[in-house]
Automatic annotation (TrEMBL):
Gene3D superfamilies: P-loop containing nucleotide triphosphate hydrolases (3.40.50.300). This is AAA family ATPase. It comes from Qipengyuania aurantiaca. It comes from the Bacteria. Residues 297-316 have a biased composition (Acidic residues). Pfam families: AAA_22 (PF13401). InterPro entries: AAA_22, ExeA_AAA_ATPase_DNA-bind, P-loop_NTPase. Residues 272-320 are annotated as: Disordered. Residues 41-171 form the ORC1/DEAH AAA+ ATPase domain.
Length: 403
């Protein structure tokens, strides 16, 4: 939606990881150095940890794009509390091997033969395990056992473990993981971006989609965004996406600090809606849309959310946040498709005008075209307004559930 108003080629602040938007902050540069060093060693474990939304997946995606696929084979496992038996099967599946989950010995044999074949072909093998904090100690021990495979003196498998901060703590404190700890050859914890990196990060993503100084941003907003996001890339994306969406709705050419503060208050549930939903009913009827139902009123007001961590990143509330992000993405995608339809109708109107030069002086013909364009403008404004109200509705519901 907002990408059309500001002339972007695509949305620059999506919540899903996209390696093409990789930004090399200080902490990401260090992580990439550790990764490169570890991969050169060709053995053991590399561990990268960081908060939810810190950019672990984007970092690994960027690394994958840099690899020579003729010399490296990569398998990937995204875990969900896997046990030891399941870990072996998932590792095999990540390399395209068909194994019987109940036959651990057979699965290990297939993995070993696969690794030996890759080594003879001159290829290294890397297994990436994401969300490693969900693994049981038994599953981690199985991974360590897989790292024992050798062809002569050559190690056959190297592993990259990605996890949240609790995985770093798990590795350092559990006595059962001492042998695995000894095989970690490189480790890095992704810190938050520095305050001075927020503006370059935002501009980097905007320039990637063809930013042409629309909108312009006042200098004061960067400190506020850094404070509210705590330097976590995904939270910066979330704030900027809402800022640009609301900016497009209000047709703003300048984004100032007061505007950003108002958007953040809306995200946190601290600001009331601009007007009752009923006031938008006439416009909704014009566009054929039904008004959203009002959120239920509770006896006690929801407590203020002091920072995003409490309801966006906390493990016990992660499912609600993920659902909310999915809802927002789905709504934006639906309205983006509607915007494309509107753009197509505009092109047809233009073609009709160009194809009828003889009727150019026909006043009724011009009036009809003008009326069509007016209705299109009304529908577009209505859609943008309803989109804003829908997202506010879902976010306010999520905030109450979290509370």
């Amino acid at each position: 939606m907002y990408e059309d108003f500001y002339g972007f080629s695509e949305r620059p602040f999506q919540l899903t990881p996209d390696p093409s938007f990789y930004f090399e902050s200080v902490t990401h540069k260090k992580a990439l150095s550790y990764l490169s060093f570890g991969l050169q060693q060709g053995e053991g474990f590399i561990v990268i940890t960081g908060e939810v939304g810190a950019g672990k997946s984007t970092l690994v995606g960027h690394l994958r794009n840099r690899l020579d696929w003729n010399s490296v084979t990569v398998g990937e496992v995204v875990t969900s509390a896997l046990g030891s038996e399941e870990m072996i099967a998932m590792a095999a599946h990540s390399f395209g091997l068909e194994v019987d989950h109940a036959d651990k010995a057979g699965a290990l044999s297939k993995i070993e033969h696969f690794l030996q074949d890759e080594a003879r072909a001159g290829r290294k093998v890397l297994l990436v395990v994401d969300e490693a904090q969900n693994l049981t100690v038994g599953a981690l021990e199985e991974l360590r056992m897989l790292s024992n495979f050798h062809l002569g003196a050559q190690p056959l498998l190297q592993m990259l473990l990605l996890g949240q901060p609790e995985f770093k703590q798990l590795l350092s404190e559990w006595d059962q993981l001492e042998q695995l700890r000894q095989r970690v050859i490189a480790a890095h914890h992704l810190d938050a971006m520095q305050p001075e990196e927020i503006e370059p990060y935002v501009m980097h993503r905007l320039e990637h989609v063809g930013y042409k100084l629309r909108p312009r941003f006042e200098e004061a907003i960067w400190q506020r965004i850094q404070r509210e996001s705590r330097g976590i890339p995904r939270l910066v994306n979330r704030i900027m996406s809402r800022v640009l969406m609301k900016g497009a709705v209000e047709e703003r050419e300048v984004i100032d600090d007061a505007f950003v503060a108002a958007v953040i208050d809306e995200i946190n549930g601290k600001a009331p809606e601009e007007a009752p939903m009923s006031e938008y009913t006439p416009q909704s009827e014009k566009s054929g849309l039904q008004p959203m139902p009002s959120a239920p009123v509770e006896d006690d007001p929801a407590p203020e959310v002091e920072d995003y961590q409490e309801w966006d990143d906390a493990p016990e509330q992660g499912e609600g946040s993920a659902l909310l992000d999915a809802q927002i993405s789905a709504i934006e995608e639906a309205f983006a498709q509607r915007d494309k339809v509107i753009a197509s109708l505009r092109r047809e109107v233009a073609q009709l005008r160009d194809a009828s030069p003889a009727e150019a002086s026909d006043t009724s013909h011009d009036a009809r075209l003008a009326a069509i364009e007016t209705r299109l403008d009304e529908q577009e404004r209505s859609l943008r307004h309803v989109l804003t109200m829908m997202i506010d509705y879902f976010e306010s519901s999520a905030t109450r559930n979290a509370a």
